Amino acid sequence: MKNINSYRKFKRNKNEVNQDGEYILYWMQINRRLQYNYALEYAVALANKYDKPLLIFESVITNYPWASDRFHAFLLEGMKEHLDELKDTDVNYYCFAESEAGEMQGAFHALAENSVAVVADEYPVYIIRENNEKMAEEVDVPYISIDSNGIIPLDVTDKDPYSAYFFRRIMQEHFLEAYTNPPKKDPLDDLEDQKEVKLPDGFKEKYPKADEKLEDIPGFIRTLDINHDIGITDKKGTRQYALGKLGDFIAHGLHRYDEERNDPDADAASGLSPWLHFGLISEYEIVKAVLDHQPDGWDLDDITPNNGKNSGFFNGDPNVESFLDEVITWREVGFHFAHHRPDYDQFDSLPDWVLKTLKKHEDDKREWVYELEEFAQSQTHDEIWNAAQTQLRETGIMQNYLRMLWGKKIIEWTKDYRTALDYMIELNNRYALDGRDPNSYSGIFWCFGRFDRAWQERPIYGKLRYMTSDSTRKKLKLDQYLNKYGSQKSLL
Ligand SMILES: Cc1cc2nc3c(=O)[nH]c(=O)nc-3n(C[C@H](O)[C@H](O)[C@H](O)COP(=O)(O)OP(=O)(O)OC[C@H]3O[C@@H](n4cnc5c(N)ncnc54)[C@H](O)[C@@H]3O)c2cc1C
Predict the structure, then answer these.
(1) Which terminus of the chain has a smaller tally of CB atoms within 10 A, N or C?
(2) How far is the CA of 400 from the centre of ligand 1 (A)?
(3) Which residues form a coiled coil (predicted)?
(4) Which residues line the pocket of ligand 1, CB cutoff 6 A?
(5) What is the pLDDT of residues 334-358, one digit of tens each?
(6) What pLDDT digit, counting tens, does each position of 221-246 carry?
C-alpha cells in the first residue's frame, strides 16, 4: 500500500535529473517556513540522494494580483525573519524581491537551468497554481511540486468534495495515518552537503539578493509599482508572531471556542488565518498543539470515525473538537475542491441546484443596490455590515460570522449575482491578509451555496441560506465591536 505522504508529490514534467546541475533548487512560494514543511523535507532528501547542496530560493514579485503595501510588507517581514535565522548557518538561502515586474522569472529560470531538479510548493489556487503549471513546462529539469498544505494530502481525494460532510468522511478515514506521518520539525537538520552553491555566472549582480531591501521594508515598498492605498497593518508576517498567537489562543481562546467563537466581542477564535495563508505556520503544528490540550488521559486511540459527523470523532473536549473541525475539515475541503476544479473561482462552478434557483430569481427586485467602491468604503445603510467592512479594510481581517453576513448581503445588495461574486472576490482579496487562498473561494462560494444545501425559498436568495443583520444583532455580542469599527465610518 502507498504511504500516505506519496499523495503529496506531483511530478510535473520529466523524470531524468540534470546530473550536471549544481544544486537542488527549492522554490519557496507559499509555504514560507523552514519547519514542518514537506516540500523542504523532500528537497533535502533529494539533495542528499544526489550528493548536492540545496538552494532555497524565496521570492516576492511586484505584479501579483492585488499587490499592495499590506501583503508586500507581510511577505517581506517573513523573508527577513528567514534571513536572520539562516545568516549564521551554512544553509544556502537566496531571497529575492523584485523591483520591476518580470525580474523574478528571469532569476528563477537562471537558477533552474543550473539545478539538478526543482522542488516547488503545490498549491491549488491563485498564481501559485499557474506558476507550477507554466514553469514546469518551461524548465528543462524535473519540476516536482510537494503538497505541504494540510493534514490530508490533496491527492487522497479523487474528486471535488461537494460538502464538508462528504470530505469529513474521507478525513476521518485518513486522519490517523496522516497525523502519525508528520512533517519533520527541522528538515534542514538532515542536510548532508552544506557547501556553498555555485550560482550561475553574473547571477548575483543581475539579481541582487533582497538583503539590503529588507533593512527598510516600508522604504523599499514605497519605491514599487504596487497599490499603496492598502496600508500595512500592525500584524507582523513572521513565524514568531504566529507562534505567539497560537500560544495566546491555546491559553485564552481554546477553552471557550465552541461557545464563543462567533461573538465578535469575545475574541475566542485563533486569528491564525493570515499566517496559515502565507504558510508561516503549518496546520499540522496547530493541530498537534491543540490535541496536546485534550483532557488528561485522552490519546489517539480515543479517535473514532463516525461517518462524517461533525462531533464525536476526536472524542475529548468539545472546544478542541469544534476547533479541529474548522482547521481541518473546513480549511481543507476548500483546498481539495480547488485541487480538483480549475474553475474553482468561476460562477458556473456552483452546484446545479444553485444555478437553477438563482436563474429563477435573477430578476427579483433589489431594495438596495451598491457599487463596488460604496461597499469598499463602508457606505451601505447597514451599521453591522459597514463595521465589518471597516474592520476588513483597516485591519486586514474580518471575524468569521460577520464574514458570512458580509457575503450574503453583497448578494442581496448588488444588481446581479455575477457582479456580486466579482465584488466579493475583489473586496476580500484586496483587503484580507488571508485572501487569495483556497478558503477565500470556499467562504465566498459558500455564501452562494457551495458546500451547503437548499433552504426555504425567498426573494433574491432563492434557495440559498439567508442571513440578516437583525438576527445577527440579537444572536451575537457586538457592542464593543460596533464601538470600535462602527465609529471609524466617520473617518472616511
Ligand atoms: C465570505 C467569506 C470569505 C472568507 N474568506 C477567507 C479568506 O480569504 N481566507 C481564509 O483563510 N478564510 C476565509 N474565510 C473563512 C473563515 O472566515 C476564516 O478562515 C476565519 O474567519 C479565520 O479566522 P481565524 O483564523 O480566527 O479562524 P479560527 O476560527 O481560529 O479557525 C482556525 C482556522 O480554521 C480555518 N477555518 C476556520 N473557519 C473556517 C471556515 N469557515 N472556512 C474555511 N476555513 C476555516 C482557517 O484556516 C482558520 O484560520 C471566509 C469566509 C467567508 C464566509
Answers:
(1) N
(2) 6
(3) none
(4) 261, 269-273, 276-277, 326-327, 330-331, 334, 400, 403-404, 407, 428, 432, 434-435, 437, 439-440, 442-444, 446-447
(5) 999 999 999 999 999 999 999 999 9
(6) 999 999 999 999 999 999 999 999 99
